[in-house]
Design a protein that fits this description.
Largest sheet: 7 strands, parallel
CATH topology of the largest domain: Rossmann fold
Order of helices and strands: EHEEHHEHEEHEHEHEHEHEHEHE
Oligomer: single chain
Strand order of the largest sheet: 9-8-7-10-11-12-13
Structural class: alpha/beta
Strand content: 15-25%
Distance between the termini: 41 Å
């Protein structure tokens, strides 16, 4: 059986879809997937052994470069329609992904109108399925695939990624995120670098955008090591030498967790019950999600003035984040917790 998956972005959403691929391939013998994904993230689906072909799309780039779009879109459509699929699963639920499912050759399916993000997308499907909205994104993906492909889903989380690596004293800090509402106070990152160094860890901090580059150098101090902006593949190579991570709600944090790296997630504006870190059910890495109870106040936007102290800061201090990391690294039994 040949199935096309349409999940173009973002990085965290793509990672959340991997366990559904694993579970489906375990339940259906000979099942193989092709995957349509934004070109910036095309290295991720190809890591999964059940994904035969990755079809990159460049919707983000085409929006800003119409001349390139005029040339490249017909070529993309031609490639997309080269194969006949038994099923096309739009697991993103957006108008753009629904249109892609309509263009592809095969029975298009997706979330129903009560379960989907952009309701118009349901008109592009031949069959749609009801999936609980107030459920973690990983299990929404697993539920959709199980209903579409007619098998009984389970509770195990297996990203299908190879996670073998040597233990080390390297820890990676993911401070950058797509929205300022998800950021953690810069002064807290600086304190966390000092805490990690005092406890014998070598801290590595990726750059990213221009603003993230400036922040990385500010928070690194005298002990942190800033990683120059590079490809996603190069950054994944950094994971291989890291034993722990601390991350705001960003795709790289979810990817590190998928590679079974012990990770503390820091959440404020977003709800970890729906998009929090979940470690593989089998493996030595664990994760924990910490959240500020007054997340709706968007406190992160006021966070970088050193003399400003808001009550919610006491809920997720550098000391509490470090204590959470030490706890999950001490515990031999896997336990993904939301708090």
């Amino acid at each position: 059986m040949k199935v096309l998956v349409i999940k173009t972005s973002s990085l965290g959403d793509i990672v959340h879809a991997l366990p559904a691929i694993t579970e489906a391939s375990q339940n259906i013998s000979g099942l193989k997937f092709d995957w349509v994904v934004e070109e910036a993230f095309q290295s991720i689906p190809g890591l999964h052994p059940a994904v035969a072909n990755v079809i990159p799309v460049a919707i983000r780039r085409w929006r800003n470069h119409p001349r390139e779009a005029v040339v490249e879109i017909p070529l993309f459509i031609k490639r997309l329609r080269q194969r006949n699929y038994d099923m096309v699963i739009d697991s993103q639920g957006l108008i753009k992904s629904g249109l892609l499912s309509l263009i592809a050759k095969g029975k298009s399916v997706g979330f129903d109108i009560s379960s989907i993000r952009e309701k118009i997308a349901t008109y592009f499907y031949r069959t749609s399925y009801k999936v609980k909205k107030r459920r973690h994104a990983i299990f929404r993906q697993k539920d959709l695939f199980a209903k579409a492909l007619n098998y009984e889903g389970g509770s195990e989380v297996d990203y299908g990624l190879k996670t073998s690596r040597e233990r080390s004293n390297r820890i990676i800090f993911f401070h950058g995120t797509s929205s300022s509402e998800k950021e953690w106070p810069e002064k807290f990152w600086r304190q966390l670098v000092s805490l990690a160094s005092l406890n014998g860890w070598n801290v590595v901090i990726p750059e990213g955008s221009l603003e993230e580059k400036k922040r990385a150098h500010r928070i690194s101090g005298k002990t942190g090591c800033v990683i120059k902006k590079s490809s996603l593949e190069a950054l994944m190579n950094e994971f291989a030498s890291c034993s722990a991570a601390i991350s705001v709600d960003t795709g790289l944090g979810h990817l590190a967790t998928a590679f079974s790296i012990s990770t503390v997630g820091i959440f404020g504006f977003t709800d970890p019950a729906l998009t929090g870190l979940i470690s593989p059910s089998q493996g030595d890495g664990q994760s924990v999600n910490l959240r500020c109870s007054c997340a709706k106040c968007i406190y992160q936007q006021k966070s970088n003035v050193d003399d400003v102290v808001l009550p919610c800061y006491e809920e997720i201090t550098p000391e509490k984040v470090w204590a959470a990391l030490e706890q999950i690294r001490r515990e031999p039994i896997k336990s993904d917790r939301l708090s």
